[in-house]
Amino acid sequence: MDRPDPWNMNQEITEFRVWLRPLKGLEIVQQLMATKLSAQRDAAQKTQ
C-alpha cells in the first residue's frame, strides 16, 4: 500500500470544499425557513 500523494489529497479536499460550500448555504437557508415556520406556528397557536 503506497502512501497517497499529499498534493493529490489536497486537491481532492479543495474540490470537496468547493462542492460543499453551496450545500452549506442551502443548509443555512433551510434552517432559517424552519425557524421562520416554527415562529409562525407558535404565533398561530397563541392567537387561537
Explain how this protein is built:
The model has no long low-confidence stretch (mean pLDDT 84). The protein has one helix and no strands. It has one helix at residues 6-47. Helices cover 88% and strands 0% of the residues. It is mostly helical.
SSE order and pairing:
Blueprint: H1 6-47
Characterize the overall form: rod-shaped
Helix and strand pattern: H
Strand content: under 5%
Specify the oligomeric state. Answer: single chain
Q: What portion of residues is helical?
A: over 70%
Per DSSP E runs of 2 or more residues, the count of β-strands stands at 0
- The poorly predicted ranges are none
Helix vs. strand class: mainly alpha
What Rg do the Cα atoms give?
Answer: 21 Å
Question: Averaging pLDDT over every residue, what do you get?
Answer: 84
Distance between the termini: 67 Å
- Provide a count of the helices: 1
Main beta sheet = none
